Amino acid sequence: MKGDACEKRSTITIAWVLVLALAVTTALAGCSGSPAPQDAERSADNGAAGETEGSKGEDGGDKGEPAPVVDVSTITEFQQSPSLEGKDLPPVKDRLPEVPKLTNEMPASMLNYEIGRYGGTLRTVTSVIDWDADVFVMNNEPLLNTPGILGEEITGNVLEGYEMSEDEKVFTFKMRKGLKWSDGEPVTTEDVRFTIEDILFNKELTPIFPAYLHSGGKATGTPMKFELVDEYTFKISFGEPYGGLLIGLAIQGWRGYQQFIRPAHYLKKFHVKYTPLEQLEPEIRKAGFKKGEWVNLFNDKDIINTELTNKKAIGFPVLTPWMIVKSTQTTATFERNPYYFKIDSAGNQLPYIDSIQSTLVQDIEMVTLKTISGEVDFSRESAALVKMPLYRENEKNGYKALLANMHVTPTDIFLNLTHKDETWRKVTQDVRFRQALNMALNRDEIIDAIYYGFAVPSKFQDSAFDLEAANKLLDDMGMTKGSDGFRVGPDGKKFTIPFEVGAQAPDIVPLTELVSEMWKQLGLDVTMKVIDSTLWGKRREANELKATMIWTHTPLWYMSDWGQGYWGTLWEMYHSSGGKKGEKPPANVQELYDLIDQAAIANPTDAQAIIEQVKQKMGEELFYFVHIGDVKQPLIVNEKLRNIPGEEGFAIATNFSGEQFFFAD
Amino acid sequence: MSTVLEKTDKRGIGISRRSRRRRDEQGAYEVASQWQLMWWKFRKHKLAMASAVILLLMYLTAAFCEFLAPTLPAQRFTEYKNAPPQTVRFYDKESGFSFRPFVYDMKMEVDTKTFRRTFQADTSKKYPIHFFVRGEPYKLWGIFKTDIHLFGTKEAGAPLFLMGTDDLGRDLFTRILYGARVSLSFGILGIILTLVLGLLLGGISGYLGGVTDTVIQRAIDLLICLPTIPLWMALAAALPRSWSALDIYMGMIVIFSIIGWTGLARVVRGKILSLREEDFTMAARLAGASDIRIIRKHLLPSFASYIIVNTTLAIPGTILGETSLSFLGLGLQAPVVSWGVLLKDAQNLETLAHHPWLLWPAFFIVLTVLMFNFLGDGLRDAADPYK
Q: Can you give the residue ranges of the ABC transmembrane type-1 domain (chain B) (predicted)?
């Protein structure tokens, strides 16, 4: 044994060696250096914002005054960001729709809204080229919205409002009169007609019509019907009641307004119905496609919501609060959209923040390095729970590390009950086996070891840790221990649970290691293998995975994500293909499917009641193990950033409300 | 011969004995074989001798890691996650000095603001360290079932972490010992395959000459041109991920060998080219010896020393290669324990800031590579004893 001093010194040397190794790795992967900090630039922007005329709240200094609840029609005075002055734009009143959207991103119970002040640049950071999840979520604008993404209330967003018929089959949507694209062109039902008739119902552009726009929300139903009423009204109808459509347009799958509204005036230039193919040929050639491939050209020019952080989106007309204007190797710059349709209760056009600067760095560790040195104003996607102490210890650098709720379960445990191995099926389809495994999961240890105490045991599955009872259940099943100490299956051979996981999230591999050890305590043979996530996806689709781990969206009731594709791959295939593929599920699984289907098409109130039944059934049947829940997610915000909800909401909901953020003095 | 060896062992005792020994050595030199001369020369290289001893110890440790480790690599101490290394003590304030070493218990404290967890020694509770204690059962080399560990505490679940623990509360010292088995054996197995390929292809190339020679040499040129790390990465990424851990381990050995044999093959070819023109080769050929016999009996022994040096210097390269690939996540993966896999867990900012002891595997990698380099240095000096 060496002395302490010596030990310390060698540790430091080793630290240097590792730093060097990290540097070499970075260099190898072709990193092109990090850009200069933008501090100076931002503080200059902040200074300019102080001159905002007419906007309330700035005289309050650091704290703006709470916004009174008002009716949007009583607001007649509108203000704009000083950065838009002198830009030769029409007055702000004319740029806003007749009925602007009074922002309501968060429910009043979660956020004490302050009237903000204009100005500033929000700095974000990402480690993926042409993609910044934080900016995407902040910038995304759905057709309808649900405050706090809770699904409790659905209001208009890009659309002014909706009406659902008594029988929940016909939906009448009202558009905002005077709403304009970011290039100043009006948004009308012509954009909707173009999107639905010429894109969605065009077999070349959309070979597979979206499943959720069929009756019953399944691919087997009949497709929706579209009817144009007037310049600002349109109708969508289904053969069966489909109250779930509204939540489907508001939040499910982060669908944007692009589902029904795309800039027809811009895209018609690339559509053969409006522009002859001969005229398109030069453009097709320029874009690098083969002669006649107008479909590829159109898809290249048509920017969907997930592509709005891509440099391709520069110049594309949008309805989002910010639009990308510049993209270099290391940064993407987003500027405010002068025609954005949301206002606050004092008549200020949103967003408050003038621009967003998204910096691309090599990897997650570089993101952390920038974060803890205070060079990031907002970070959610890349913030990891394991780094919380590091974030908190460096808060003096000008940011706050909040702990908000996570919108997905941390990681659930799956056994594929439909794997082709007959012995495996016999064992795993026996509910006693699943109960035994459930009882062998020590929630306290999992929460403490992997989630640092920031999670709670499952609320709808039994969380008692009882090895004795678990062993007894396995004994009752006749799974006796063989000479090697391992339990045997009904075929008399050693029964093995082979975990195969991809490392899609940082907690998956350590959790698999931990759970394997816990199940080994029952005398079961548990093995684990980490495989590439692409291969993992392929093996899952081919029904080759026996046991695995992945997260699900169970905390968001409207996602109808109960991991069906993981614990019953063939049953799910049967269900989604309408009985053409896969295997017919047994009665108890069919019951669960029926409930989930009902919830998907029911209106929100009914749906939530049905989801409670789903949870209860999931608790009894344990088709998969939602062993813990309510995990926390760190949220890094600049300490000057305001209109940040408290810690009780979803972190991603805060992210979603970006147009409401502003920098305090 | 043995007398000579005995005497040379007792060096530096008295002037008269030393001069007598010199006379003996003089005589011995004249009759000693090449290997003997090499051994004498090598022994004078103190650094290389020390390295050889240390390496031998390390390999022995790796071979008996189950017995030497106080616990098992997957054994979790749930109360002690990310615990720092403990100091082994002999002196306690209350009971004074004791010959039996002991460690203090550790208590976890959580900072209420930053949520950081730190450990403080709890002097009220101490765990004496015993030798040959009964602990977790294991199978030595997968054959002999026993539960005796070289050292440990007698209480189950008591902390004894010479190098701290990782985020699941597993003893890092134990994991490093088990990792040594994988990482060190990787070097040896890798070099054996390299040696076979290098000798075979280099030998054929040099001895046959002509078209065969040209083809092999151009293939070598091509392989040497390619930068090794990207090539390793590409090949390692091409290994089917559906393979088991053992398959991947073997696959990686093959990858390192099919790239690493070129240098050796060049040396072998050069040597054979010059040696096959020597008179003794001609004599053997005239006596009717077969090609294989000539290569095996006459040519190979003539440059065996070079091969040994070359090999020794190539082993650390292979070990480093395995470590770097595993570190990058392309090589071996959990639950396999190798030094590279252990380091992969440590490549983040929180480790550097809060749990620096997780970098201990790096120390062992550096030590191993350094020792092999010193050993190679000594062998190179000794390889040509007639100089």
A: 180-376
